[in-house]
Request: fold
Amino acid sequence: LSTEHTFETKPSLMHRAETEPSATVSLTRDDALKLYRRMQTIRRMETAAGNLYKEKAIRGFCHLYSGQEANCVGMKAALIEGDSVITAYRCHGWTYEMGAAPKEVLAELTGKVSGCARGKGGSMHMYAPNFYGGNGIVGAQCPMGAGIALAHKYNKTGNVCLTLYGDGAANQGQLFEAMNMAALWDLPVIFICENNHYGMGTAVSRSSHNTDYYTRGDLIQGIKVDGMDVLAVREATRWAAEQCRNGNGPVVMETETYRYSGHSMSDPGTSYRTRAEIQEVRQNRDPITSFRDKILGADLVTADELKEMDTEIRKEIDDAVHAAKTDPEIGMEHLSYDIYSDDLGHNMVRGVSPFVQLPHKVTGQAVNRK
Amino acid sequence: AQVTVRDALNGAMDEEMARDERVFLLGEEVAQYDGAYKVSRGLWKKYGDKRVMDTPITESGFAGIAVGAAFAGLRPICEFMTFNFSMQAIDQVINSAAKTFYMSAGLMNVPIVFRGPNGAAAGVAAQHSQCFASWYSSCPGLKVVSPYSSEDARGLLKASIRDPDPVVFLENELMYGTPFEVKDEMLQDRDFVLPLGKAKIERPGKHVTLVAFSRPVGICLEAADLLAAEGIECEVVNLRTVRPLDIDTVLQSVTKTHHCLTVEQGWPQCGIGSEIAARIMESPAFYELDYPVTRLCGADLPMPYAKSLEDASLPTAGDVAAAVKKALNVS
Reply:
């Protein structure tokens, strides 16, 4: 087995950039195993989420990340300690990448106390250290990400904030507002458009006059990368983060990717695109299969190793599913807790009638409390 | 000493910025222009670009940036030039700031103050004359504060900036230049904070309770003066905070006076007066009432421009006095 191998990736497209990431990418055996494990875990976790939804164990909305795994896994691999991330509602993969165990993600989806927000946030509202959600309002996370970057600059942390949105949110006015201020103030933010080609059921050509999302920061330098190639994503993110760390931020990055499922669980995802299109991507561009072929072909790993890893992942997810199904929901007293991070004194929280007055209490760690 | 509301607000921000490096001010024209209403006068010169930031005219964007900065541990004061423009950004206030602590089950608190002038101004017509107290106070997770006097402005703004949760701080454009007597010890005390969620009895009385916040507190005090000449003693409750609402102070007063009128400049439907009336109905104090709660509000129409029409759109001391007499059945 080799310990390291060099791959050629598809060159990124650049916009107003003076430098660019190298298309020649080096990968160690350890990283190969790590990246494969993380992408495969997210795939299994999302498949499990889809099944739990069909079993009616998950309520409301549920947006799956399957097909887009190379994005969060590649980006996270490029981050350093203290870098932050904020994304929209398709957040399960990111929550896992930022430190939550699959069990915490799946149990949040089923609304259980062992979930990462103890069942009070659900599918779209998950948090982890340096991970600011999980935001349910399309586009609202874009200025917030610039604000997190502002805090990095203010505190001179040397860190960056990845601010993710989809091709749908790319047309929200507040994204352009945020880009304008981020550029005016040199904020260390990477605006990342995960272009999966459909905002719900609206194809990019029907929503966007300019579908080159990486150019839409106007004077801000941009990069478009193959979002189905975890190595290309990692290199592009490293390059973009480097720009920010050197004071050349912000950056707009577009990843060319694809989602296999519908927009959410209520969408079969076939009225606005063909089954053949989905099939074509699965067969030829799947981020996990293609990476697997690549690392096997380079003798970085063996088929048996990957098979063993798949078995371990399957077991981890099966256990997580079991917990997500059988763990209890949070205690009823928590209904009125954690509305404010400050004591409300004698003030009670009104229930559904004046005869139901509930006590308020702070139970969480409240990260910005002091 | 005599202090204007503007100077009280300015001093409160200045002291809190000096006290806590994480506190910064952003908004339209807050820095080089010295504030559209001069509330931030001198702060940019003193604290520089890093801590007093002029933004483009882009409410949704800079409110979102402020919320993100608060997520990441800073203590932003986000100024809306007027709260009318905060409608461009209300999603960030409600969905991003107010709900996140609960959605994260107590993990991510959002220490931010949204402040600026609110309510009816003079001669600026419907789009620039509206009270948003009832809109924001409807939402759990927010605290909504609205000062009347300079003492209120100083103590409540300092408390709001120190508060670990999102606060909507509703000032009044027409009050900025109004001077009030403030005790010297309050001015000298750099830790002078007033508790959020606690009302103040501005004037004790035994015949009728008048409940108000912001500028209408002055209208109530004026009405109380008029009525005192006729032997009617009004108790004037200055709410100071509309969420959490200090209903206990109102109920105690009503239990004593057996009459209650609410006075505000916002619209009648779903107003703060409506809420107070409902809370009284839901409490034993209801049985203490000798006359139904009377709401005095802004008229139920968009604010007209013409002066005579504008004047008729807002409750005056005369309106309050007349309503009190009706409630007490005196002529």
Remarks:
- The mean pLDDT of chain A is 97.
- Chain A touches chain B through 59 residues (CB under 8 Å).
- Residues 333-370 of chain A form one domain.
